[in-house]
Write a structure and sequence with these properties.
By secondary structure, the protein is of the alpha+beta class. The protein contains 18 helices and 19 strands. Strand 5 and strand 6 form a beta hairpin. The longest helix has 20 residues. The C terminus is likely disordered.
Length: about 625
């Protein structure tokens, strides 16, 4: 109990007691999660629940310090909880290896916690937890890191900005077939081709359909490219039959870097305004060098002959592994950024292709980040952010929301400090997630209650003076339309038949909402508390009042932000707060996953940065 005593000396006995009795949920037990769980266990928190779907991998050991080599392949949450229990044997700590998006983790489950702390690394799960905390009316401490950048903030429904109040950059991009296959212009184009096409064709189970997700017009526009791509795929499939021979790597090299390039060069109109590709000769590049392909330098840009040697070595290693697959087991490999042979093959292939098309080459380390769609993690950043999260958690639990803040870690030699903080922002009145009324729909028997019964119950609420202000109601679940005035097919169907079971959410909106006064209602489906009522809606007494969205009074382009601004390109502009010289810093993330902090002298230069990030495809930036 020493940590509780120390906490009492800093914050007082009441806060220490509240922290000790609070039930907290930690979502994610990876880079931030390990540091966070350790900090919580040593800061007076006594009731901790950790959930993570992943298992421990070798690559985790350099920054997730609760794990050791003996823990590889074991669940992260279980090992992390065992470690913090060893630090503090008196802990009431529970671990779960599960997906936080499973329906069993419904609004009632989230309501059982006093605070939720997010330590996730993907947008989809973070969005889900944000929405569940809003529905359960539980404060959330949100966090994230990207290399040397990091942030932590507190989200409280109706009082602060939620996770979705500001737009987020997409986690994954798609590229036109013709660009990837014939006219690459950036390193990422060559990496996508090497990983998603060549690696998958030679060693994978199957190639992802190139026309998947295209509409009829897109298919028509790309029909010729798709047909040629299928023919090339068939040719590579025939080459795969030579995998057991010593000529396999040479045959693949000559096919993709010589013969296919010759075919592209024959299309002279294609290169009128573009630099034509260069054919690569295997005979010339396969000369002996001092380079050892078994131990490449991950941070170096290799010579072209060395990339060729790495291509041959990695292709042979992958082919050997595939040929040694026991009979009866699936004979295919899946790309893994932590698989040295797979990563070296993709890196060598991508750089050979980059050279052929006159594109900048990348190191193996940089390609690992781009091919794995990740940003290299820095242990120190994780530790700083986890510490800020615990401080925010203590203040949020003690009712000091006004003292909480959003803190950014932005290491740069241009700044005199690496942590910048600002007051919590108010909710965005245009937010499609937190500008909602969250209620709980409790059902006794989903096999008997129909969608029509739910709508009738809502109609009775209006008659009893508990009007939800919804006219010409429509009902959706995710992207699925369940009901609107012109679509009544589902009214007689049971909730179970519509897969509307506990854990799901349905959104009720008004068809007639020109002035923005009818705020949509989100019903979180949960089990009934008693057997007497077939269905019941809870939370009507806690419905917040929302003012109609207000359009900006001024469109002055020179208007400056008080604290920070998420511009159209996703650039976060921070107020320096030093010296009053009007200078700002912009935190951005480039396409290679490289974190940068740029100094901006005035609003004009800030706007130039944003325009460059938005319009110039070669230097386009993404938000953290």
């Amino acid at each position: 109990m020493r940590s509780t005593t120390q906490l009492a000396q800093i914050f007082g006995d009441k806060v220490a007691a509240k922290v000790a009795s609070a039930r907290v949920l930690v979502v994610g037990a990876g880079g931030i999660g390990c540091e966070l769980l350790k900090n919580l266990s040593m800061s007076g928190f006594q009731h901790i629940n950790a959930i993570d779907l992943d298992t421990i991998d070798l690559s985790n050991l350099n920054r997730q310090f609760l794990f050791q080599r003996k823990h590889i392949k074991r669940p992260k949450a279980q090992v992390a909880v065992q470690a913090i229990t060893n630090f503090n044997p008196g802990l009431d700590a529970v671990a779960q290896q599960a997906n936080i998006k499973e329906s069993v983790y419904d609004v009632d489950w989230f309501s059982g916690f006093d605070l939720v702390l997010n330590a996730l690394d993907n947008l989809d799960a973070r969005r889900h937890v944000n929405k569940m905390c809003l529905a359960a009316n539980v404060p959330l401490v949100e966090s994230g890191t990207a290399g040397y950048l990091g942030q932590a903030t507190v989200i409280s429904g109706g009082e602060t900005e939620c996770f979705e109040c500001q737009p987020k950059a997409a986690e994954r991009r798609t590229y036109p077939v013709c660009t990837i296959r014939s006219t690459p212009s950036a390193p990422i184009h060559c990496i996508v081709w090497a990983k998603d096409y060549l690696f998958a064709q030679l060693f994978g189970e199957q190639v992802n359909s190139q026309d998947e997700g295209m509409d009829a017009q897109e298919k028509a526009e790309n029909m010729e490219e798709l047909q040629q791509l299928r023919e090339e795929s068939q040719a590579l499939a025939r080459l795969a039959e030579a995998m057991s021979t010593g000529d396999f790597a040479r045959l693949v090299f000559e096919k993709v870097f010589y013969e296919d390039t010759a075919r592209l060069l024959s299309m002279k109109d294609m290169w009128t305004n573009r630099r034509p590709p260069t054919q690569l000769s295997f005979k010339k590049l396969s000369q002996k060098t001092k380079f050892d392909p078994r131990h490449p330098d991950d941070h170096a840009i290799l010579a072209l002959e060395d990339w060729c040697a790495l291509f041959v070595h990695s292709a042979e290693q992958l082919a050997q592994r595939l040929m040694q697959t026991p009979q009866g087991e699936p004979r295919f490999l899946v790309f893994d950024k932590d698989d040295p042979d797979a990563l070296n093959f993709v890196a060598a292939t991508a750089n050979l292709r980059s050279f052929a098309f006159g594109i900048e080459q990348k190191s193996i380390f940089a390609i690992k980040a781009m091919a794995g769609n990740i940003i290299p993690a820095i242990a120190t950043t994780n530790a700083i952010v986890a510490g800020m999260m615990v401080t925010q958690a203590i203040m949020a639990l003690s009712g000091r929301l006004s003292d909480c803040h959003t803190a950014y870690v932005s290491y740069s030699s241009k700044r005199s400090r690496c942590i910048v903080r600002e007051p919590l922002a108010k909710p965005n009145p245009q937010c499609p997630v937190c500008r909602r009324r969250y209620l709980t729909l409790r059902i006794n028997e989903s096999k008997q209650v129909t969608l029509g019964d739910v709508l009738k119950h809502i109609g009775k609420l209006a008659e009893s003076g508990q009007d939800l202000n919804l006219n010409d109601l429509s009902v959706v679940e995710g992207n699925r339309m369940l009901y609107d005035p012109d679509f009544e097919d589902n009214l007689s169907k049971t909730l179970e038949s519509l897969d509307l079971v506990p854990g799901k959410m349905i959104t009720l909106t008004s068809e007639d909402d020109d002035d923005g006064t009818n705020v949509p209602v989100i019903l979180s489906i949960a089990k009934a508390r008693s057997q007497t009522d077939p269905l019941q809606i809870e939370g009507l007494d806690k419905i917040p009042e929302f003012a109609p969205p207000v359009k900006p009074e001024s469109t002055d382009e020179n208007a400056a932000s008080d604290h920070y601004q998420m511009d159209t390109a996703g650039v976060i502009v921070l107020d320096d707060g030093e010296g009053g010289d009007g200078s700002n810093s912009a935190i951005v993330l480039d396409d290679d996953g490289v974190c940068e902090v740029e100094h901006i002298s005035d609003e004009l230069n800030k706007r130039k940065l944003v325009e460059t990030a938005t319009n110039d495809e070669a230097s386009k930036r993404r938000a953290v």
